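Dear U.,

For the methods section draft, I wanted the exact inputs and outputs in one place so we can describe them consistently. I've listed the two proteins in the order they'll appear in the manuscript figures. Please don't edit the token lines directly; just add comments below if something needs changing.

First protein:
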Amino acid sequence: MKIEETKFYDQKLRQWFCEPKNIRPVRESVIGALFVFLLLGLTLPFNLEDMGEGRYVYIVGMSIITMVVSIVNGLFATYALRLPLDPKLPLRKVHLNSLLHYVVCIPFLAFWLTVYGGYYFCDHPLDPWWHGGVIHLEYYRHFLYYVSSVCLFLYIGTFVRNRNWYLRYQLDEVRAINELLEQRQIELSEKEEQRQSVEDVGVGEEKEEKASEPMLRLVGNVSNSSIEIPASAVIYIESMANYADIWYLDNDEPRHKMLRITLKQIKENIGDHAFLVQCHRAFIVNLNFVVAMTSRNAGYQLLLFGTEKLIPVSRNNAAAVKEQVLSLLSHG
């Protein structure tokens, strides 16, 4: 029983450390501690050169306090203040959360470094705060200034790492989705080969089934301008001012037709077809035709079957489109 419990907690711990929002504050804290160690070791402020060999112990202590306080603060900001460094969030939000992590950390770190300085240089850790019956904040203000200055340089590095980390996560995610899309295309090809090899009766039944598919009827704002096609045959729709270019599949051949109709009117006619989603203010796509996804800055682009055009996915719609693509793939 104890072995099973140990495995259970070990698995939970591994999952916790695999979460980007958990491991990221820890990594940033370690980087910050190493930076403090190098900065103090090279510059030797606070007359550390007069301490002899004891200065290295003091520097190591400062670095350890920086790391521990930063880790605790990072997890506090992540869970209590709901400021996670999560790559699933927009990049601007990640930058803002990182900045707020530093803002929250600075006063706490300055406090503990002041206490540590009192322990190391004074008779009591509270001496920098209370002396001669009077409260003193001078030492704390000095540390507040030093910590703020150091954090400013650290945030510049964090800003760059945020972007690189975000793009790397996005690229890994796109690769995983493309692998699933490729596997789905193989499965669909196999099904298509099986369909073509069925007997004539089976083919007739399938055609009858296809005839009963929900139809999508779009009527333009000009007389004698309309189109009626199976909703599942729509590849994508591109809005061009008051016109729409409708791409669809007809007898396994991609075709398109221009209608004088707005995207808003089209959305009203789509109904509850979950596979038709708006991925951009000018595009509606059929997720069933997505064959690949590419990363583009802080967004995505979709490559659809039967077209060579890359369909942009806006930042506002990226999370929803990605979730629907994954849902579609998970349900076969």
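Second protein (the one for the lower panel):
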Amino acid sequence: MKFKKFALAVVLAAGVASSATAKDGFFVGAVGGYDLSSKIISESKNIWQFTYGEKQLDSSKDSAFNFGLRGGYDLGFHRFYGGYSYGFGASIKDSWVEGPYNYMDQNGNEAVIKNSYNNKFSWDAHKIVAGYESRVPVFQGLKAVVGANVGVQFLKFKTKYAKTTQILSGSADVEDYSYTNKCKATNFLFGVNLGVAYDITPSQAVDFGVRYEKGVMAKVKFSSDDPENDGDMGGTKFGSENIGLYVGYSFKF
């Protein structure tokens, strides 16, 4: 029992010492990370469907890097900040072959053909957030961090479609195509993070941990270079969800 009381006293004393040596004031810093899961979500849960032949792709999940800048005020136990970050492009590629099969064009010409389809779905995001972190001393220079943030996200995503046809025998008129659909959405964003921070000096600190961010559903603006596409998305809404790791550095004035 005496040992437990002594150990607790040492930990508390170390925490007080850490708080005393840490310097309060304004800070600036950078934070980067890796989203283990970067996901785009539609109201139907399927972001995009490639429905050529019998092939269909419903997945909208990839991994991606992100980087940002932030600044605010550090009170030792509490930190308030604002920041900007960019989520680098994540993407999904899908390719398949259809055929060979017999084909007849409008003029009655026949050929044996094979179609190759190559589609790519990609997205990135700019984010502006304001956040708060509770930074509780654990041991000398080391703090447990729990935080939350809210903000706005400018989400962009596009789908490139391409089809090429190879004539294996015979002669017929065939048509290849290549076009891109683009969408933009402005989402309300919220997130939470859990990690640890370490005060290298009274003015410098590093932190790392895990975080979760959610972009709330919002209507999209649509454009396409496909002449047969009227650009009507029918009021479709899209959002995002990211889960990943982060590491940051800050300098206090």
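Candidate sentences for the figure legend, describing the second protein: The chain is about 10% helix and 70% strand. Strands lie at 25-42, 61-74, 78-104, 110-139, 142-170, 177-199, 204-219, 221-224, 237-252.

Thanks,
Y.
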